[in-house]
Design goal:
The chain has 16 helices and 14 strands. With 432 residues, it is α/β, with parallel strands linked by helices. Helix 5 packs parallel to helix 6 and helix 12 crosses helix 13.
């Protein structure tokens, strides 16, 4: 099948590459000329675990190509997936639909033959209706169906999640569209659940899922606080909770709060949509407020470790919002750093993949190191904010010898507390 992906970001590019791996002919369309030039030159424009190998393989096999031309991308497509951004509106915090509307208006002119247009982007309820209306007005002769096809790919695990989906949600009542989508995803028949629902239900499923997972993260962070003052261990508590099949073990790792391109904006959008319908999402609102407070609390913990140090320097390991990606959007690490900088401390940071993107956000406000040990030189507190595997192998003797005041604030609980303490390091974890 011929598939067109509009947008080559953290949703569009992995989706396009993985669709090509299934044997489809994929064209990815993006307005960013520099990005398309890089992709056509074989240069990846983002980091996602295991994606680069598939990217090069499918470019070589000519299963995927990249263009800035909407006409080239659309004219022979059987399925068009819209995967552009829906960032929070700067004032209302609702999902900003300008990129969706722009892509829809442009693609409408080039539709030929029957085409299914699917929204991969996370979009507010009734967006499918809007897309349908825009296309019909722009191209009254177009033969098409609009489908909601939400993505559930975790950044850092997008390739794995694509090939091992929990479910495939398809929002449509069109039998014609169902047939085409089933053919597109034939590889997954018998391997996962195909959940066919009406389009609006599909649009809500994505928001409902992300809001719930964000609440789960906020909840385990609150339980970590409770464990700290009662003498319990959050790792043991979370494991005990996760053994209950009704709860499950995923998203029960305490930390500096949730971030990334989905949970922050989707909880805000969910809250906005509820208000527009005269409803209150009390749990979602509490989660949003709690996540903001969480990052301030983490910064306060860090500052408490250096309160008696003159002109302290703090080492930060991890800038991406999670391991497996270079994405720094709404990264708790970035937010914590900005909070620390208000108190005039010096910060030195290192991340194995996210240095370039982090520097675009932080500029020269902090120092940057080429590796994790250089980041520790003559510092007073080491803070782990992203759970990269290489940080788990820290040599405590090197840490102790390099730091001026050997203190670790392990915001991801990835280090061995007993080994750190026995090495003469002041260790603080989360929920311990």
């Amino acid at each position: 099948m011929n598939i067109t992906i509009i947008g080559t970001g953290y949703v569009g590019l992995p989706t396009g590459v993985c669709m090509a791996e299934l044997g489809h002919k994929v064209i990815c369309v993006d307005r960013d000329e520099n990005k398309i030039r890089s992709l056509n030159s074989g240069i990846m424009t983002l980091f996602e675990e295991d994606l680069e190998e598939l990217f090069h393989k499918n470019r070589k096999e000519k299963n995927i190509e990249f263009t800035t031309s909407m006409k080239t991308g659309i004219e022979n497509a059987d399925l068009i997936m819209i995967a552009v951004g829906t960032p929070p509106h700067p004032i209302t915090k609702e999902a900003d639909m300008k990129y969706i509307h722009a892509a829809t208006t442009e693609l409408a002119e080039h539709l030929t033959g029957y085409t299914v247009i699917a929204t991969k982007s996370t979009v507010p309820v009734a967006t499918g209706d809007d897309i349908e209306s825009l296309i019909s007005k722009r191209n009254p002769q177009a033969d098409f169906d609009v489908v909601s096809l939400p993505e559930f790919l975790r950044e850092g695990f997008a390739v794995h999640d694509f090939f091992h989906p929990d479910r495939i949600v398809i929002g449509t009542t069109s039998e014609r569209a169902k047939t085409l989508i089933t053919q597109i995803y034939k590889y997954f028949e018998g391997k996962t659940v195909f959940h066919y629902v009406n389009r609006r239900s599909s649009e809500v499923i994505k928001y409902a899922s992300n809001a719930f997972l964000a609440m789960k993260i906020h909840y385990i962070n609150e339980m970590a606080n409770f464990c700290e003052v009662t003498g319990a261990d959050i790792s043991e508590v979370a494991t005990g909770m996760g053994l209950d099949a009704r709860i499950g073990s995923r998203f029960l790792s305490p930390g500096p709060g949730y971030g990334g391109s989905c949970f922050p904006k989707d909880t805000l959008a969910m809250s906005y949509m509820a208000r527009q319908n005269n409803l209150e999402m009390s749990l979602v609102n509490a989660t949003i407020e709690g996540n903001i407070k969480r990052k301030k609390d983490i910064a306060r913990r860090i500052l408490n470790t250096v309160k008696d140090v003159d002109k302290p320097t703090i080492s930060i390991l991890g800038l991406a919002f999670k391991q497996g990606t270079d994405d720094c959007r709404e990264s708790p690490a970035i937010d914590v750093i900005f909070e620390l900088l208000q108190y005039k401390v010096k910060v030195i940071a290192y991340d194995p993949k996210a240095m370039t993107l982090a520097q675009e956000l932080l500029n020269d406000k902090i120092g940057y190191s080429n590796n994790m040990y250089d980041a520790l030189e003559n510092t007073d507190c080491l803070v782990i904010l992203t759970e990269w595997d290489e940080f788990k192998t820290l040599d405590f003797e090197i840490v102790k010898n390099k730091m001026r005041t050997p203190t670790i604030v392990d915001c991801r609980n990835i280090l061995n507390k007993d080994q750190a303490i026995s090495s003469g390091i002041n260790y603080l974890g989360i929920g311990k």
